[in-house]
Amino acid sequence: MTTDIFDLYESNVRSYCRSFNAVFNKAKNAVIYSEEGRDYIDFFAGAGALNYGHNNDFIKEKILSYFNSDGIMHGLDMYTVAKRDFINKFNESILKPRGLDYKIQFCGATGTNAVEAALKLARKIKRRAGIFSFMGGFHGMTLGSLAATGNIQNRLGAGVQLPNVTFMPYPYKFMKSFDTIDYIDNVLNDANSGIEKPAAIIFETIQCEGGINIASTDWIRRLSDLCKRNDILLICDDIQAGCGRTGTFFSFDRAEIVPDIVLLSKSISGYGFPMSLLLMKREHDIWQPGEHNGTFRGNQLAFIGAQRALEYWEEFNLQKDVQEKSDFIKNYLTNEILTLHNLLDVRGIGMVWGIDFSDVGGAEISKQIARRCFEFGLIIERVGRNDTVLKIMPPLTIEMELLQTGCRIIKQAIIDVFKENGLNV
């Protein structure tokens, strides 16, 4: 294996390859293979872009058929059969059963563009510049979305001020005993708070990059009510937590709310193709033609994959499968991981879970454990403040045997690293 050419020619901005130092050449469902023939269990899933696994046969068959038919490959926002079929399927399978009357805007290729579109639209609708976001939130790396992202190191990369966003406390750790919704309400209605009413509040029901911080259904409902009372748009960033990751298609389904705007990307295409979209209540669609556009906002292969993924979700009863695997992960972490040290913490829902080492060695320990996992054949990411949380996020389609093996690898890696660092196990 040689990586010299990457070191010589690829920008220093590369990041994941620094943690997973192998050259990969193929993948299937929840396993990635290096060019040396070693297999790795995937608990990373393309940072959430591969909910349906690598090279899902059910989806691939439809994509290959489209390829062989000489179907349109690049269509901007022109009318195409692929787009029409996806819209029909998405409306029939996802929106109508929930009573959602959303219009769909196809944005640029990545999630950050959907965030940019949402912030622009909210400001256009309400004619206010301000946005409220939450501490610990992650919404992207372009200037508008980065302004709504809390991580200081990420923000410093902008090189300019990131204005017009005010950060509010999220119900996380020490803030759980603090009524964050009541605080926001007081800020909005205090004539001397110094903070003007925003156009929108953007939030994640689960802060995945923030460390698997989960908002309760009560908190989500209260946030929705607060926005309605104060004439503020509610934007749900479901880019990483959506598309079935929490067990239902939208992560906000459990709270039974209807956000004004919903953002989807990552796994929406079903096959790892670039795709992002914005769902908006019908009355909010006040765009002028071409007012927000992009050359690759009509990814035809993504439309094909996305439609087929929705069919897969239904035909294989993926929601039930996710619940069974979620139950296994929860029980394993509770019975096998938490018992390793009394200061460990685990959090999660559906098939996104985190093991928090912030009180047990912090970032250095979590880094050693992630590295040891990779040595044992498991790809797993670190997230949260100072990267102290090990994030478990395999494809939803992972075989139960592989899921069990991956969890055992995590346990062994923790035991080994704890012993090496003199931590009691």
From TrEMBL:
<keyword id="KW-0808">Transferase</keyword>
<dbReference type="GO" id="GO:0019491">
    <property type="term" value="P:ectoine biosynthetic process"/>
</dbReference>
<dbReference type="GO" id="GO:0030170">
    <property type="term" value="F:pyridoxal phosphate binding"/>
</dbReference>
<comment type="similarity">
    <text>Belongs to the class-III pyridoxal-phosphate-dependent aminotransferase family.</text>
</comment>
<dbReference type="Pfam" id="PF00202">
    <property type="entry name" value="Aminotran_3"/>
</dbReference>
<protein>
    <recommendedName>
        <fullName>Diaminobutyrate--2-oxoglutarate transaminase</fullName>
        <ecNumber>2.6.1.76</ecNumber>
    </recommendedName>
</protein>
<comment type="pathway">
    <text>Amine and polyamine biosynthesis; ectoine biosynthesis; L-ectoine from L-aspartate 4-semialdehyde: step 1/3.</text>
</comment>
<dbReference type="InterPro" id="IPR015421">
    <property type="entry name" value="PyrdxlP-dep_Trfase_major"/>
</dbReference>
<dbReference type="GO" id="GO:0045303">
    <property type="term" value="F:diaminobutyrate-2-oxoglutarate transaminase activity"/>
</dbReference>
<dbReference type="InterPro" id="IPR004637">
    <property type="entry name" value="Dat"/>
</dbReference>
<keyword id="KW-0032">Aminotransferase</keyword>
<dbReference type="InterPro" id="IPR015424">
    <property type="entry name" value="PyrdxlP-dep_Trfase"/>
</dbReference>
<dbReference type="InterPro" id="IPR012773">
    <property type="entry name" value="Ectoine_EctB"/>
</dbReference>
<dbReference type="InterPro" id="IPR015422">
    <property type="entry name" value="PyrdxlP-dep_Trfase_small"/>
</dbReference>
<dbReference type="GO" id="GO:0047307">
    <property type="term" value="F:diaminobutyrate-pyruvate transaminase activity"/>
</dbReference>
<dbReference type="InterPro" id="IPR049704">
    <property type="entry name" value="Aminotrans_3_PPA_site"/>
</dbReference>
<dbReference type="InterPro" id="IPR005814">
    <property type="entry name" value="Aminotrans_3"/>
</dbReference>
<keyword id="KW-0663">Pyridoxal phosphate</keyword>
